[in-house]
Amino acid sequence: MSELFGLKVGDAGAIGLVVIVVLLILTGRLVPRSTVEDVRADRDARLAELTSERDTWRDAHKESEVARQVAQGQVGELLELSRTADHLLRSLPQPDWEVGDGAMDETSP
Predict the structure, then answer these.
(1) Fewer CB within 10 Å, N or C, the chain?
(2) Which of 4, 9, 43 is nearest to 27 (CA)?
(3) Would the pTM count as exceeding 0.70?
């Protein structure tokens, strides 16, 4: 037969069985059904909470990725506009005067 706490179950007798049951209760291996149900309910509630939190973060990530892609597209458009403006400004004819020679000075006669 199997041993429990070093004792053979068949050799224990009635008092031995009571002692074994008490030892199982004291060591936490034998607990009431209501305790097990409470622990399971707590676990299930925590899992539901974690699942909800995970889904919230997943949705937030999806929204941020959509916003990032929109922003990236806008940056591309702005870059193209800045290249166009740069090309336009560089194609304008250069003035003959130097900065500081008074050509645009309002105090000059």
Answers:
(1) C
(2) 4
(3) no
